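User: For a benchmark we're assembling, each entry needs the component sequences followed by a predicted structure for the full assembly. Here are entry 17's components. Please fill in the structure.
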Amino acid sequence: MSKHSQYIALAKATEGMVLADDLLDKVGHVLLPAGVKLSASILNSLAHHHIQQLCVEKEAADEQELETERQYKLSRIEYLFRLQQDQEPANSLKQYLIHYREGTAT
Amino acid sequence: MNPEEETHARLAAIVKHIKDLPTLPEVAHELLAELDDDESSLESISEKIAMDQAITAKVLKLANSSHFGINSRVVTIQQATAMLGVQNIKNLIRLTIMVNRFQAVDCPGFDFRAFWRHSIATANCAELISRALHMKHDFAFTAGLLHDIGRLVLVTHYPVEYAEVLNYRDQNECELIDAERHVLKIDHLEAGLILAQIWQFSEAVQDAIKGHHHPDIPGINALASVVHVANAIVHALDLAQQENELVPLLSAHAWDTLALNEADYIAIFKETEMRFEALNQIFI
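Assistant: Structure for entry 17:
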């Protein structure tokens, strides 16, 4: 299983999602193989098989979206450390965190 | 009443409150005792888990979560315990038991989910730090999980006044512990310590509860420093998802005691976020 998949509750599964892993029933039989695109009728029938969650592929996150999230996390750092500006050892921790969020850590 | 008498009266009331809490179910009791016993076998733990449905469900869910990326489905407790390992199973049981202990009360401004998000993340982070230091990491998880338990004691016993504490904190932009002292004349360290004593937590865990804000108390267990730094990291990683999140004052004593380098910390940040993601889906 790759990090591009995630478990979601059946109730949250929607048409068009793609199964990232074989879906088994409780005795281990394959109900649906990995790679199947979920349709309305499939979702309906799953409800009768006591399936509670599914492993589906994550939609490729938009580059722009990722960058926005990264920038947001970076911009939060100053605020989070607002009680101790320019103090050690908080400053070291803050620097490590900035490197971590920037992805520049070695 | 002078402030000292007031603190005293509040402590006595809290002791009574804790003693009035429903006792742990028997299975939970046996499990907790067995968890502290290093000799206990995986089989006997598996057997006991199977007796508790809530724990069984969570163990299976974790074993099948993407964090433990394997391809086949895990359907039995034996498979799950073998795969997750004793350590993960023990932690999961501790979590389930503790999270179910305190029922949510109505305290405007207190977010129970955020509280547990923070506690679970700190438990994992403390365990990772103690691994990096080659310390016994069993205690670290428990200590991280329970370091703020006094807050739950205060909230459940004084829901109305605790709302005032939160209000005072927001108005004065101070740490929660200072707001607690100002409004309640007692803080979550004292309340947590009483609970830890009544429930007979190990001394190391008691030290961590007592010292996680000031880990430089002479003679205190080094676990206090571990939890202190883990707590700061989790606040800094913003994992509780609270708008007014704040990194508390970081102690130089604790920082120097750990003596970890940047590469250690970066690895800890990363693993803490990953594990948190997996557990968060199951518990909160």
